[in-house]
Write a structure and sequence with these properties.
The complex is a heterodimer.
Chain A lengths: L2 H17 L1 H20 L8 E6 L7 H5 L4 E5 L3 H9 L5 E4 L2 H8 L7 E3 L6 H18 L24 H30 L2 H5 L6 H26 L7 H25 L3 H23 L14 H13 L3 H30 L1
Parallel strand pairs in A: 1-2, 1-3
Antiparallel strand pairs in A: 3-4
Chain B lengths: L3 E12 L2 E12 L3 E5 L6 H8 L7 E6 L2 E2 L4 H5 L2 E4 L11 H11 L7 H7 L15 H12 L6 E5 L7 H17 L2 E6 L2 H7 L2 E6 L2 E6 L1 H8 L3 E7 L5 E7 L5 H11 L2 E7 L3 H9 L6
Parallel strand pairs in B: 3-8, 3-9, 6-7, 7-8
Antiparallel strand pairs in B: 1-2, 1-4, 4-5, 9-10, 11-12, 11-13
Helix pairs in contact in B: 5-6, 8-10
The chains are: A mainly alpha, B alpha/beta.
Amino acid sequence: MNWRIVRVLVAKDLTLFFRNRYFALITGLAVFAYAGIYFAMPASVDEKLAIGLYAPQLPPVLEELQQEEGLTIEQAESEEALKDAVIEGRLEAGIILSAEAIQKLLGGQKARIELYFPSDAPDEFKEAIITLVRELAYLQSGQVLTVEVSEQVLGRDMLGNQIPPRDRMLPLFAVFIIMAETLGLASLISEEVEGRTVTALMVTPVNVRGFFAAKGVSGVGLAFLQAALLMAVTGGLNQQPVILLLALLLGACLATGVGFLMAALGKDLMSVMAWGIPVMLILSVPAFGVLLPGTVSDWIKVIPSYYLSDTVHLSANFGLGWDDVWQNLLILLGFNAVIISLGIAALRRKLQ
Amino acid sequence: MTADAIVAKNLTYSYGQLLAVDHVSFTVPEGEILGFLGPNGAGKSTTVKMLTGQLRPREGRATLLGMDVGHNTERVQARIGVCFETTNLYERMSAEENLNLFARLFAVADFDAGALLKRVGLDGRGRDRVEGYSKGMKQRLMVARALVNRPDILFLDEPTEGLDPTSSETICNIILEERNRGATVFLTTHDMMEADQLSDRVAFINKGQVVALDTPHNLKQQYGKRALKAEVAKPDGGLETREIILDRPETVAAVRELFSNEQVVTIHSEEASLEDIFIRITGRGLGG
């Protein structure tokens, strides 16, 4: 491998990349835009649950209710004021406890209690509030619950230390930035093939290996530097920086392999973009899984970028070390070997 | 004795079932311009690709400057310059940047892009991006790029096709200058006039085979018809054409009779063109 030639080709690739207005703009703006979004989002999680109560006569168990950790009870002046607060989103739920209902409860009779929820309240949340009200009614009527609940948190107790949404979004931003470079690299290669400039290179001392090496260095360099810069700016490298930089480097290699494949599949620049956008979206899905836990199932592990998103999430947000992420990194390395080999083989075939 | 710069021995290549080049053999001595002529699809470009290391022959071998192309591809490529038929420049780079890039790839020390651009008539436009160039300017830049490393062998594929007379003349002059410098030129062209003017020898390729290879003069001698063509006045005031074949015993008498009995208006020698010879040898024209 002639590294002098590789260096010349990389300099040429970077010149051409930044002379493509679209990719130059995307590359320049992406870091600023994602960092801007990150800092615009709240840095902490509001763990309080605010519910409203309208009761002409306050029930004796109210004090007991107010002692629940993380629960805020606001007393409304009227039934209408309570409804408005729920509709406007200031309260997560509203409870109407009429004087008649309290009298019936105190008398041990069956009482009707009205609950208000916003239209987008999940069923699980509604069930939890209904259960809470039932228990209170039980206590109000003077009966003692026959169960004793023991609460134990498995794993790290995040109460009071939840991950803010912006930190959950970090893996998504990093994956987006890296995968966007897939398109940049694929279009760069496609332009070389379409414009036959690669043929001009191949009758000089440049050989196919040198050509691939230069494209690889350009692709990995662009993707890695942007992702690393974003992570550094947002404080994402404060914990486990070595692991995170390695994960980003492997992610950049993955993007390069995918870029080679797309450049080989696409007949021209337009078809490269047509292939590239769905591929980029698929590779971003695992990062959405980090952002919205529970929305994806185990099949997501067949997407190579899962191991990048998961590692970034675990190490940047929880500070987990080698013991917890080495398997992810190893699998990502394996995926890289396969995808880069396939990409080079397909592209070599196309060039010849 | 001049050494052979290019030696092609039984070069053969096929695309699937299509035999593009069929056991082609020839040599080109150092400092010679060889015109490689043939219609579209005759195998010209495939031969050039094998000679320049872009394609590996299915059979046979190519030797350039004493080195086997298949085994010393990079060393050979460091000493050749190739100008392609289709424009393949980095359009978002300037002419200077294009030339400097290739000079760095060839590791040319003290490369002067400005001087080379001046030589091809592009001085003053070196810093403009190539995307704004006309076809003629791009073609001249392609020729300049092929000269960056002062090549020992210059491969030119249709270098003047579709160009204005000024651009064509510039390129033809450069070809002759390169030959005078000592470079060997392998010129692929459709243009018979150009080949006739520039080439020391010409090779005709047809259906993947070299069917003739000699100097234009010898080919004309061998295959051409040498004749005199005269226009004579008719009694009614019109003109009539007469042809007298040269190199025959009766030629002198025929010429004397023409001038004695006819009113000769014009007379000139008639020489077969390379195209006539190509048609005579292959039964098809160069146009396709």
